[in-house]
Automatic annotation (TrEMBL):
Top-level taxonomy: Eukaryota, Fungi, Dikarya, Ascomycota, Pezizomycotina
Record-given protein name: Uncharacterized protein
The keyword Transmembrane is assigned to this record: yes
Biased composition (Basic and acidic residues): 29-42
Entry keywords, A to Z: Membrane, Transmembrane, Transmembrane helix
Matching PANTHER family: HYPHAL ANASTAMOSIS-8 PROTEIN, MARVEL DOMAIN-CONTAINING PROTEIN
């Protein structure tokens, strides 16, 4: 073959070009993988919505019960303050600690639950952002304090009632209003009404404990979902990093030729 024929068949050295290396990019998920990813996103969004709904219901019930307890216990103490100057209306040395303790716990719980309820219902408001920031940071501390507070106040109230009935002293306001009083004193201190409201307060406090248990279960579900989501993200990140590393190593050891005719 002559020189002209050789030049037509074989590329010259100057015609040989090496294609530049390009950084591998992550291809978007297609087909089955994309469908799985969409299902996970919808499932996570649905669970988040369920947890938020449970939070709203819990906060609403807790706020209503706390409001009722605060009103009932406040009514008893208000009656005592307005009638204690009447001789024989109340014990000479009354024990108001159980009443004030449950009233204080209910009032504090009402402020917290009411704030969080507003935050859940109106998440875009300025108050909502403040409530979420403060309530979220101290959520577990406040919830624990509520649980302990209602437990202690319920035990103290019932213990005082039982002690007053057994000993016959009736120094606490609950047991005193639940004893037989002269007609004039019964009307003055509203004994029957205040006896019933304190029984209702104690029952609501027990109901609060059940609501707090439900709240802890909801918190556990939310924590589990967050941990699962973080775990899935960590697995995806490790897989992506591993794939990129393997692709880089393969590209480094693979000869790359590109010929232009």
């Amino acid at each position: 073959m002559d020189k002209d024929t050789d030049d037509k068949i074989l590329p010259s050295a100057s015609a040989t070009q090496v294609s530049p290396q390009t950084t591998p990019t992550k291809e978007p998920l297609l087909g089955h993988d994309s469908e799985i990813d969409n299902r996970k996103s919808l499932r996570d969004a649905h669970r988040t919505k369920q947890i938020q709904t449970l939070r709203i219901v819990q906060s609403m019930l807790s706020a209503l019960l706390s409001l009722a307890i605060a009103i009932f216990q406040g009514k008893v103490y208000w009656t005592y303050q307005n009638t204690k100057s009447n001789a024989g209306a109340w014990p000479s040395v009354p024990n108001v600690v159980p009443t004030l303790l449950m009233f204080s716990v209910a009032l504090a719980a009402l402020v917290f639950d009411g704030s969080m309820l507003v935050a859940y219902i109106a998440p875009g408001s300025k108050f909502s952002r403040w409530a979420i920031m403060v309530g979220g940071a101290a959520h577990y501390i406040v919830t624990s304090s509520k649980t302990v507070g209602y437990t202690i106040s319920s035990i103290i109230s019932m213990t005082s009632l039982n002690y007053g009935n057994v000993s016959g002293t009736h120094t606490d306001l609950w047991s005193y209003t639940c004893t037989d009083q002269p007609a004039n004193m019964d009307s003055l201190i509203q004994a029957s009404s205040n006896c019933n409201t304190q029984w209702a307060s104690w029952g609501f406090a027990i109901g609060q404990l059940f609501i707090e248990v439900i709240g802890w279960v909801i918190s556990a579900l939310a924590l589990r979902q967050s941990e699962k989501k973080l775990s899935e993200q960590a697995v995806d990140e490790r897989f992506t990093a591993y794939s990129a590393d393997i692709n880089g190593q393969l590209k480094d050891v693979t000869p790359q030729f590109a010929f232009n005719s």
